[in-house]
Amino acid sequence: MIYSNTQKKISMSYKKRQELIQEAVQKDIVNVAENLGMELIRKGNIYIWKEHDSFVFDTRKNIFYWNSQGFGGNTIKLVELIKQCSFKEAISFLTEQELKVRKQEEIIVKPFHYTLKDSPSINEIKKYLKDKRKISDETIDFFYRKGILSQANYFNPDTQKVEAVIVFKNKALDEELKGITIQGIIKNDESHRPYVKKTMGDGFCATKVIIGNPPLDKSIRSKDNPLKLIAFEAPIDMMSYYELYKDKIGDCVLLSMNGLKKGSIATLFSEIVFPNAPEEVKKDALTYVEKYCEKSENIKIILAVDNDKAGEKFVNDFDVSVIPVVSHLPSKNENTEKMDWNEYLKQKKKTIKDYKENINVETDYGTVKLNTLGHISVMDTTTLKVEPWDKSTSKAIGNAIYEANLGVGVDNQGSHILIKIPALTQERRDHIAKQVKAMGEDTKTQLRQIRQDAMSDTKKSFTAKEISEDTHKANEKNIDELTKKRSTQIDTVVKVKIDEVMKI
């Protein structure tokens, strides 16, 4: 699409203008950042902003890149971002020369051109999403069918190798491809960013997927049937959220902002509400609505961003009151600085796995694992649901969960069992840690009994002259060494588990 935009032009000769811009660009970007009050941490040839570990300065190229936001640039862009000023003001800051506006000039913006070739198979990215991100086949296949997910080969400049990557398609509502988001699946330990991440094209056109039949047409929107827009920081968080709440979210539009970009939400909002608006103003549509439109409950925005300082600031600074705006952040435990939706999903999956593998149920046909008797799913942040395939086993399942002494509430409703998980307060952490320690001591007591029995057996064999004295002494030595080894292993497992409980 071709559209016009405005760019400020200085009132001086072309040569002088270019010299001034070049002078600004050649300023040492690290010195510029420090003059802007940014506290930097050096790591080899790069510097990282202390406030945002994804904000990286490349001293070799004299540029910055804010990975979590999906953009970067030179010294001028840095000043524009940090000082929230215009191009003209940024040049003035860097060169101490005032620039004057002469006129507006038209810029021709070319449409995005997709140069990668999609693979006919998604097996490699599917394995990554399942193994590393714990996203189910069902969810992966759903997003693939929606046409926003593909596998392609990408030349990684950090490794100088071609590798398979996930490609998330950033499309307008009319299906025009406006850009892509690349997520690497091969870890590079030598890079400051282990997995390649890159956004190309229109930075405000979000990765989006329509769920069900949301009221995109204003004629069918109402207070009782509002259009729900649910915004995320990254596509994988969007997929994770869908897996957690697909049975509850109803008809809606999910969108990934590829960072914390109010403009991405505004662009989608404008596509729906003001489809004929010029491209250059769409990213500011929410500001226009806030200033000039009356209150309405026909559209609802849900900010499902990361639960961290940046996410909380984004929610607090969103500054839209004419339409309902609510936040839905993944729960994080005490002493945890950040929680995103994928990490939250992985924790829930681990909890479910623990229940499946560690609870034994006494039935009429023997003792069996819980996972063989029913389906376990996440109801909400504190509730798991067990649905027995054979309803007659419901009582036995409920009793087994209760007798496991896991410190959870058990609500047996016949057709299903609800497991209520209490909040992980510091008091409860301490209680769980004591339980883990006690289990370790019980195991070591059993180990000592086994050692005693083994020592007794080898002594009896020696007394009965079934083995020689040398063999007897060798047996005793082996028993002691094996006992010590197993005792150390128990201590290690207990420590790891306690550390995990106290940190989560």
Helical residues, percent: 25-40%
Q: Structural class of the secondary structure composition?
A: alpha+beta
> How would a textbook summarize the main sheet?
5 strands, antiparallel
Q: Total domains, how many?
A: 4
Counted by DSSP, the helix tally is 15
Describe this structure in words.
The protein is an alpha+beta fold and 504 residues long. It has 4 domains: 8-104, Zinc finger, CHC2-typedomain (DNA Primase, Chain A), CATH 3.90.580.10; 123-327, no CATH class; 359-420, Gyrase A, domain 2 (2-Layer Sandwich); 426-503, Topoisomerase I, Chain A, domain 4, CATH 1.10.132. 39% of the residues lie in helices and 22% in strands. It has 15 helices and 22 strands. A 5-stranded antiparallel β-sheet has the order 2-3-4-5-6, with helices on one face. A hairpin with a 2-residue loop joins strand 2 (40-43) and strand 3 (46-49). Helix 3 crosses helix 4 (87-95) and helix 7 (235-245) crosses helix 12. It is globular and about 110 Å long. The two termini are 48 Å apart.
Could you give the topology of this structure?
Blueprint: E1 8-10, H1 14-25, H2 29-35, E2 40-43, E3 46-49, E4 55-58, E5 63-66, E6 71-73, H3 75-83, H4 87-95, E7 101-104, H5 123-131, H6 137-145, E8 149-156, E9 161-171, E10 177-184, E11 197-201, E12 207-211, E13 227-232, H7 235-245, E14 252-256, H8 262-273, H9 279-282, H10 285-292, E15 299-303, H11 309-316, E16 325-327, H12 341-358, E17 360-363, E18 366-369, E19 374-380, E20 383-388, H13 394-403, E21 409-412, E22 417-420, H14 426-463, H15 469-503
Helix pairs in contact: 3-4, 7-12, 14-15
